[in-house]
Amino acid sequence: MNVRDKPCTQDGRLREVFGAPVADLYETAAGPDASAALTRALEIRSFLALAEEQVARICQRVHEAMRPGHDMDELSADQLRMDAQWLEAALSARDGYRTALGDLLRTMPPPGQQTRPVRMTQQTITTTLPPATAAPAPQRAGAARERRP
Q1: Angstrom distances, CA of residue 8 to CA of 26, 58, 90, 134, 140
Q2: 54-80 confidence digits (pLDDT tens)
Q3: pLDDT value at 145 more than 70
Q4: What distances in angstroms separate CA 56 from CA 86, 101, 146, one per listed residue?
Q5: Could you tell me if residue 89 is left (phi over 0), alpha (psi between -120 and 50 degrees) or otherwise beta?
Q6: Cα–chain-centroid distance for residue 96?
């Protein structure tokens, strides 16, 4: 299954902000006129969808191992500790992606508002050279000084 097709807890928020279903947003992001905010939001959304899928898989594995009627001799404390570590890592990643996506959606410009390029002007300084009739520089100007004993 393609990450575009995986459900994500933030799909409704993306639809609300960008005004289109996630599948349509991915199509728009593939085009030449896609905004940087949309591209970044969908990239984070893809990572979030994968992290949420990891959380779900780990939970299913633990529930399967603990289901009633399951052979107690097959339980492994080491395996359950490993699953707990994996779950902690997956939840941490999910929380980080949710935070990053929320921050992006909160700080991006409103949809339809074009960002204007900043026009930078560089100040120029003009100087005038002294007239050509000025006194010539001394003969030793700029030469290294002789050392005296």
Answers
A1: 14, 17, 14, 79, 79
A2: 999 999 999 988 888 888 888 888 999
A3: no
A4: 11, 20, 83
A5: alpha
A6: 11
**Integer-rounded Cα radius of gyration of the chain:** 32
Give the relative orientation of helices 77-107 and 36-66 as an angle to the nearest 10 degrees: 160
Q: Is 30 helix (H, G, I), strand (E, B) or coil?
A: coil
- Please write the tens of the pLDDT for every residue from 75-101: 888 999 999 999 999 999 999 999 999
Taking the C-alpha atoms of residue 140 and residue 138, their distance in angstroms, rounded to an integer, is 6
Q: What is the pTM of this model?
A: 0.69
| Among 68, 61, 21, CA closest to 45 | 21
